[in-house]
């Protein structure tokens, strides 16, 4: 399968391509993705810019019809698309199908948003003057998406961009071209005018600067690493370009003495190790009060050890492979760092399977302090550390002692502590007696501090990024 670029309503080949490798079986080449150059990205920007006025003038019904078509087809094909996603990214099949379903629901939601766009009519302080406040599309938006949610994250960027009348240039992660290609193929049949939706495959280091630096791109929405996000913010700031950044996390899960032990263990297991821990909302710091600490650690270690690690499409697999060799090496390096700093590691070893892939056991690191690197830096794998604390007050202080602020969770039976944590946890999303990972598609997503910059993603709040406000005065 060749994953070609889609530019101006046409499928366009690049001069060369790169293989799409199955992380569950590295001998399985799923397809080949276009390896594009800067000129091809520039061509996509030009056609999106030319097409922007026509799509900005489209009716709410046109936008609804296109987005609803996409959502309907995604949901109808969730089994097929889920298998493709699992094969190329490594999520186990139930998680992959769930991600595809979420992408379909996102398009359905924003189809409705296309019809629900509102404004304000206000009385002026001056007699005989009317004031209208409306939202207008930005124009061309550049979307840069990561490998860990290869259809859901493109969906939650593309759908609001189109619903609010923008044209799109998508640069997906080069590790996962198949899911992005499948999504764009559906969009290519949704009745959109040529040039409204475009995708360019290739290396981010070569294509990203073209997209972020172009004067014809009005906004950049990026999900990825903190370092890359900071660079994009600097470029956008220098060019007075709107940007929306979703970056890293070092999310705390606080477990208090009064927590339901089984609930706390299951919430922590889910947050830390599901999706192979490759989620920015993963529970990577487990902050546990001393009265429950030993029982919690023993129970969680047993549950983690019992997880069946295997191929994403394997029967009974509960955790799939790491996405690639580079990520595996990073995970192992952090496990070594944790040991060197005095942590005790349970699990975390490289595993063999019937096929050659990037399999590892989930790792639980105990005897850690919050100052250790394992608790300061994002690993982005199935590695969670435990920090023992005295009481709730210390737990809250440790939870907030991080440069990140995406998601935070607490397991407790105390309404007092639950309400206080909701109000005082320095995170954009707070979970009570739930995993830190796993959010709804119709509400805002985003964090504080080094985790996010700019307006929120998803839900009605997406309009804050994908539109600009216009105030118009009229003498009646």
Automatic annotation (TrEMBL):
<comment type="similarity">
    <text>Belongs to the aldehyde dehydrogenase family.</text>
</comment>
<dbReference type="InterPro" id="IPR016163">
    <property type="entry name" value="Ald_DH_C"/>
</dbReference>
<dbReference type="InterPro" id="IPR029510">
    <property type="entry name" value="Ald_DH_CS_GLU"/>
</dbReference>
<protein>
    <submittedName>
        <fullName>Aldehyde dehydrogenase family protein</fullName>
    </submittedName>
</protein>
<feature type="active site">
    <location>
        <position position="246"/>
    </location>
</feature>
<dbReference type="InterPro" id="IPR050740">
    <property type="entry name" value="Aldehyde_DH_Superfamily"/>
</dbReference>
<dbReference type="InterPro" id="IPR016162">
    <property type="entry name" value="Ald_DH_N"/>
</dbReference>
<dbReference type="Pfam" id="PF00171">
    <property type="entry name" value="Aldedh"/>
</dbReference>
<keyword id="KW-0560">Oxidoreductase</keyword>
<dbReference type="InterPro" id="IPR016161">
    <property type="entry name" value="Ald_DH/histidinol_DH"/>
</dbReference>
<dbReference type="InterPro" id="IPR015590">
    <property type="entry name" value="Aldehyde_DH_dom"/>
</dbReference>
<feature type="domain" description="Aldehyde dehydrogenase">
    <location>
        <begin position="11"/>
        <end position="471"/>
    </location>
</feature>
<dbReference type="InterPro" id="IPR016160">
    <property type="entry name" value="Ald_DH_CS_CYS"/>
</dbReference>
